[in-house]
Amino acid sequence: MIPDDVPDLPADVALLLADAKTLRGPSAEARARLRSRLPLPPPPSPPGGGNPSGGDAAPSGPSPSAAVGGASAGAAGAASALPKVPLWGAALLFAAGVGVGVFGMQLRSDPPVAREAASPSTVVSALVVATTTAVKVPSVPSASAPITVALADLPNVDVAPARPGESVKPEPGASLAAERALLDVARTALGRGDGPNASAACAEHARKYPNGSLVEEREAIAIQALVLEGRKEDATQRAGRFRTRHPRSILLPAVLASVGLSE
Amino acid sequence: MVPSPRTEPDPRDPRDAAAVRFEAVFEAELDYVWTSLRRLGVHERDIEDVSHEVFLHVHENLGRYDASRPIRPWLFAFAFRAAADYRRLARHRTDLYGDDEPVVASHTSAEDDLARRQREALVADALASLDIDKRAVFILHEIDETPMPEVATTLGIPLNTGYSRLRVAREEFAAAARRLVKSRGGLP
């Protein structure tokens, strides 16, 4: 409780601060440069050539800055002539997913990008992770025929319905690499603004790895995918469940910001 | 013989778990750190270098981060110290926030963008009138909406000191903002 001798800001001045809450981060180039100077995995080589360093997750020293150009997942099967999307704010990177580093979505002389601090309509993920790993996911139509995935059809965060012959239990020795590859597909779809395919990849992850290591990351991507699809209410509900289940997640601020909630 | 490097992070390995966590923090919160440094008076051309310093400190200290506390105030503390060091260098004394302000991607009209940017610049200029200690309290509480007890913990100051700085910061910011609005012929 603020003491009485600390007067409130005048209303007209407080109104000014609304615009000041926007986060203005670095350009994609500056982000990539900074990343290369930090003890972080190097970004992958551009698709179609160069050193396939995507699988090397060992931290390294300064490395060449991220390659330019659009990046796409190796084998999502859903690549299509999607219109390029503007550079969205990057707010989420998922813990195990990115040994291969980060690509800018569309590089020009990218200026910093403003992101609303709590705008429900703002897509927060700008990361497109290139991977040369071929990942087979259920056949996903191109964006011209988007999938509609009802929230009720998506597996629960913690437990997915078992298929006949399958049991739902922790997957001892489950491949972290395979989980991450699936989420890379989801993240890549998200990065190009393809909500339906991002949701589909998340649903696949939830089905295969209901108790996997990257459940938090999957949920964060899934929530953003719902926002992209315009399913704000579903996204908000799922974000609420995320907050309940992962109250200390480092991804929580960005998840809540994507649906306009605060901690 | 040098063992070949592991190509996959092993979350059971505390070193790899830390690397994975640091990467997540970097990607999720770079915008926040970058913006905070700008608000604290670091010039646009220097933010990249100062951000680098901040994240190096974050990397060193991430193992000591108390997950029961929100992460942004914790990060802000590193940004604050880096900005304070930066401002102590004589050549960086002038607050030049707003110089080289880049074009912002936006879906609103050009007029709306211009008005918003003018308001943002006005706020930035009003912030520049505060010394860094008061500015930090003001940013954390008024802009980042951090409760005052957390503000005090973040900045390592007694709560009463925090309230005192907030009171003065509000007065000074309001005076500066109104002065700027008047000098610019009204609110954009």
Structure description:
With 263 residues, chain A is mainly α. Chain A is 32% helix and 2% strand. Chain A contains seven helices and two strands, in the order H-E-H-E-H-H-H-H-H. In chain A, strands 1-2 form a two-stranded antiparallel sheet. In chain A, helix 3 runs antiparallel to helix 4 and helix 5 packs antiparallel against helix 6. With 188 residues, chain B is mostly helical. The longest helix of chain B is centred in the first third of the chain and has 26 residues. Chain B is globular. About 6% of the residues of chain B have low confidence. At the A-B interface, helix 1, strand 1, helix 2 and strand 2 of A face helix 1, helix 2, helix 4 and helix 7 of B.
Give the biggest beta sheet of chain B. none
SSE-based structural type of chain B: mainly alpha
Distance between the termini of chain B: 67 Å
Rg of chain B: 19 Å
Order of helices and strands of chain B: HHHEHHHH
E-strand count of chain A: 2
- SSE run of chain A: HEHEHHHHH
Low-confidence sequence ranges of chain B: 95-106
Helix tally of chain A equals 7
Helix percentage of chain A: 25-40%
Outline of chain B, from the CA principal axes?
globular
Number of E strands of chain B: 1
Describe the main β-sheet of chain A briefly. Answer: 2 strands, antiparallel
Strand content of chain B: under 5%
Average predicted local confidence, pLDDT of chain A: 64
Q: Which regions of chain A contain 5 or more consecutive residues with pLDDT less than 50?
A: 49-91, 93-111, 116-173
